[in-house]
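Contributing new records

If you add data, match the layout below exactly. Sequence lines come first and carry their own label; structure lines follow with theirs. Keep one chain per record. Anything else will be rejected by the validation script.
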Amino acid sequence: MCVSYPKSGRTWLRAMLAGLGVDARFTHFGDAPGAGAWGLHARHVRAPVVDEPRIVFLHRDPRDVVVSFYHHLHKRRRPSLARQVRWRVSGTRPPPELGRFVRSPRFGLEKVIAYNLATAQLAALPVAYEAMSERTADTLAEVAGHFGAHPAPQEVARVVAEHEFAVMQARERAGVAGESWLRAKEPGDPSSYKVRRGKVGGWRDELDAATQDWADEVLRRTEYAGRMADLGAPTALAGRGS
């Protein structure tokens, strides 16, 4: 089983593992739209209970996660009218503005941080999205091996080449992605794509200066990077959160 917060890179990993013929389950543990923990306040997040022999914990810079999740909810995953009413009544409607969304304790940066710190307590193989982006073949082979598969290096290289970001996005744009969950909602709007950007550090292009400063302060205050490292899940946030 692979555990991750939404928009941490599981679409890419899921597609590559499928290309290798590796059968793995994926879960967000209730933090996807319509699920039981939807809109749960960050202070109530607890470590999930998992009864699985092999677990992968996929995590990503929370700032990139929250920006991508915002676009996913507002550009790709448009809720029904009935769901919008339920969200409004229960106070779990995602804020429509990016800055407010990032600051929301129910959907934003603090929620992602709380989720990752809780999930890092599992006995799992930690995989950072940033490491997977930099060393894709090695990371994919490691994850496949964790699930009991041992593909040849040339097979791993083939799958990595077939699932480069530009290739996957071109398939989505052209509407030829095989799986329904990989098809563009609005081909003319890249923000609505399932494979949207995938850029490490892309949050810098979308958050204003005040929101960036606020996010950095939250990372420092929560000691995110240091605590993740202590839990055996080091991040790419060198010098932050310590």
